[in-house]
Structure formats: C-alpha cells, structure tokens
Design goal:
- The structure is a single chain.
- By secondary structure, the protein is α+β, with helices and mostly antiparallel strands.
Length: 365
C-alpha cells in the first residue's frame, strides 16, 4: 500500500532540488550582470582618472620647463607672484583630485573583488548541490582558492590600504609639507641672510635624504597580506583572477619556478610587477591573450608577462622623452632588490615584461 507514495515523494524531492539549483543559477547570473555593469562603470572612471593624471603630469612638466627656461619667472614682481600662486593652487587641486581618484578607484576595485567572490561562492554552492557538475564554472583553468580565504584576503587588502594611507599621511606627506615650508623660508631669506639660507638648505637636504631612505625601506619591506596567506604562486593566481574579472581577457599561468630562495622583499617586488604589468596590458595593450610565467635559470628566478597586444616602439618612446609611470614603477622596484628589468616590444607584435631576480646557488652536499 505504501509503494505508490514513494514515486510522488521522490519526484517532489527532485522538483525541490531543481528549484534550489535554478535559484542559485539565477542568483549567480544576476550577480554576474551586476558585476559586468560595475566593471564597465569602473573602467569609465579609470579612463577619466587617467586623463586627470596626464593633465597633472603635463602641468608639472610645463611648470618645471618654465622655471628652468625663464630665470625671471621667480615671483619677484607682484604679477609674477600672483601667477605663481594661481599655478601652485591649480597644481595642488589637480594633485588632490588625482590622489582622491586613486583612493576611490582602489575602493571600487575592492568592491569588484567582493562581487567576484560572491559569484564564485554561488558557483561553488551550485556545484556542491549538483554533485560535481562543473558547467557553471567560468574559468576552470585557474587553481581553486577557498572562498573564505579569498574574503579574508580582500578584507586584509582593504585594511592594508587604510593603514598605508595613514602611514603616507603621517610620514612622507608630512615630511614633504615641511620641506615645502622650508623651501619657502629659504626663498625669503636667500638674499637678505645667505648664511641662514645655506644652513636651512643643509637641514632640508638631510630631511629629504632621511625620508627617501624611509620610503625605500617602506617599499622594500611592505609585504602584501595576500603573500602571507597564499605565497607567491597563489598571489599571482589571485592577481590573474582579479585582472581577468576586470578586463575579460584570457590570462594563462605557467608557474614553473618555486619561490624558494627569494627574500620577502623580492617576492613583494615580483608580485607588484605582475600587478602593474597586467594593469598596463588591460589599459593599453588591447590584448586577447596574456601569459604570466615563471622559470628558473642558472642563478636567476625569472618572471615574464607576455601579451599579444598592439605593442609599441620602445626606442621611439624613449627618444620622445615620454615617461611611462607604470614602467618606471616596475623598474624602480626591481632596482630595490638588485633585479634586472626589461621590456621587449615592437608595434603589432605584443609585449614581454621580464624580471630576473638573482638567487644564490644551492651548494651540493
């Protein structure tokens, strides 16, 4: 008598299971749509920030060239002082807007990472419910990183940004403000009291040298939370996943060289180079495929970021005196750990960013 009830009950369970899977799939797809719109808005804001930053760089370059080329433009006349004051105010406003824009973009990057983690969490739950069906996973090539760990990393990165902002405000920013006041004082007493001006210049030189050393040490010692949690390979995979989410590019990893033998500072530099190189690819290269690879040669740990984008003429860029702050950023950090940094590129042939970090050879026996 009870047998006929088993089939309807089983069908009901299957129906509820299908409803649950459908709800998860709907939630994941809805969140993907929101993420895509968020990404589009973020990229629009990033483009506006790039224009603002270029305006600031051009304004500072023009101001420096005017001061170097026109000795009379030292603010001695009332008109010159007014123009210099107006230019200084505009420069401060531009710099303030640029700095605030970078902070806002960092916050949006964190929010985008949270959305991506939410999608991964829904996908993982759907896969668990479907007992191993992987059709909903969008990129099965990347090694899996637990969602809970990813969320801790995102929160740690947010805390790091806040701490870094406070450190910069209390340290280098305050020191530079003091240096500006000192320069203004030197300018006032330069002709009326030369000995005092020379004394103040000496103090200013000591201040700047000390702060430069602090900044270099700070950059060299800053260890991102993701490195602590995941190690270098895991951090590169995490960066690749984030950049793929931001850009929609296909980014492959060929991580054949373990980070054994690399100092904490060297690992930090390697991760920063990957992050900056992928940012450059996303913003400028127009690439379809990107590869992040590591290898070990005799006495060197080598990182390469290769793309099939539009490329550029490195010689022509250098000859025109154009500064690429992303490349400068990577080159300066490579120098901090004694590494070699180079960029190989030609128009329409893609670009290769290469970092080679010396590592001590292991002694036999």
């Amino acid at each position: 008598m009870d047998a006929p009830r088993s089939e309807p009950a089983s069908a009901r369970y299957d129906e509820l299971h299908a409803e649950a899977a459908e709800a998860l799939a709907f939630a994941a797809n809805t969140l993907r749509g929101i993420r895509d719109r968020y990404r589009s808005t973020y990229l629009d804001e990033l483009a506006r920030w790039d224009v603002l930053r270029d305006d600031l760089v051009a304004f500072e370059r023009e101001g420096g060239e005017e001061e170097a080329g026109d000795p009379s433009s030292n603010g001695t006349s009332a008109q010159g002082a007014a123009e210099a004051g107006a230019a200084d105010l505009r420069q401060r406003l531009l710099r303030g807007d640029t700095d605030q824009g970078r902070i806002d973009l960092g916050r949006h990057e964190t929010e985008l990472s949270r959305l991506e983690l939410g999608i991964r969490n829904l996908e993982s739950t759907w896969l668990f419910l479907e007992r191993g069906d992987s059709s909903l996973v969008t990129d099965a090539q990347l090694p899996a990183i637990p969602t809970e760990l990813q969320m801790r990393i995102v929160e740690a990165q947010e805390a790091e940004r806040a701490r870094l902002a406070q450190e910069v405000h209390d340290g280098p920013a305050q020191a530079l403000s003091n240096a500006i006041f000192q320069v203004e004082f030197i300018d006032r007493v330069f002709e009326s009291d030369p000995p005092m001006a020379h004394t103040e210049l000496r103090f200013l030189r000591e201040l700047l040298r000390r702060e430069l050393g602090d900044v270099r040490g700070f950059i060299g010692q800053l260890r991102p939370p993701v490195l602590v949690e995941l190690g270098l390979d895991g951090s590169i995979v995490d960066t690749v996943a984030t950049q793929a989410a931001l850009s929609g590019m296909h980014i492959a990893t060929e991580l054949d060289a373990p980070a054994d033998g690399l100092t904490d500072a060297a690992q930090t530099v390697a991760l920063r180079v990957v992050q900056e190189a992928l940012q450059n690819v996303r913003k400028h290269a127009g690439a379809t495929n990107v590869v992040v690879a590591t290898s070990r040669t005799d006495g060197e740990w080598v990182l390469e970021v290769r793309d099939d984008g539009r490329g550029f003429d490195t010689g022509a860029v250098a000859a025109r005196g154009r500064r690429n702050f992303g490349l400068q950023f990577m080159r300066e950090r490579a120098e901090l750990v004694g590494a070699q940094f180079e960029v190989r590129s030609r128009p329409e042939t893609g670009t290769v960013v290469r970092l080679a970090i010396p590592v001590p050879r292991k002694e036999n026996g």
